[in-house]
Design goal:
By secondary structure, this protein is mainly α. It has a single domain, classed as Rhomboid-like (Rhomboid-like fold), CATH 1.20.1540. The chain is built from ten helices and two strands. A two-stranded antiparallel ribbon has the order 1-2. The longest helix has 22 residues. It is globular. It starts with 7 loop residues before the first helix and ends with a helix.
Amino acid sequence: MFTRTESFKEFLRYYPIISIIIAIHIILYFLSVFPLLPNLWLYEHFAGVNLYIAEGEYWRLATPILLHGDLPHMLFNSFSLVLFGPALERMLGKGKFIFVYFMAGIAANVATLILEPLTYIHVGSSGAIFGLFGYYASVIMYRKDLMSKANSQLILTITIIALIMTFLQPNINVTAHLFGLLAGFLLGLALLPHKQRPNIRFNFNLGKKHPASFKGVSAPKLIIWCGIIILAIVGLLFR
């Protein structure tokens, strides 16, 4: 599930959304470092600057997800997306994967706006990637039949290590990591198809197993949850 055996052409064909996101990472990074281009312009207009967001530049809640501060940062996040994104893109489908990825990233940036000082500046897709970890966690908790035990243990181990490293490494947006993880988990609860919704005692007995597909979520349900999340974000911005 997390081992890549495809050729480059096969990867592009099977996982077009992830391929496009990584291509954007690379293009924006090189646009920001070539001396002949207005490299500072990208960061001046699209980096996450809490002061500017508070003054109404709300696009900065989304655009930092595609920008990175340096080459190792960009390569590490892109590599993480290559490892952990494909399974979800195939399970969710293109549209829902885009929704989960960017909503988790935006939620992480909203939390950064609320909890960090106005002078705080941030870029990077780490919040969105932690959102993928959160979504996997919801699958492990509520739809164990969609992942093997080995893959479940692997993703939990990686998530725990990533959380530990969040608090040990310098210059990390801890708020974005934690709230991206939480947002991904909540999106999983909202979007995962359940034969039987878990009650407050967390009953995991979901009956007959289903094939590994998340496409059982109806369009009205997705629209309703999208509206709820957007309203919550707007409410937080104008709190």
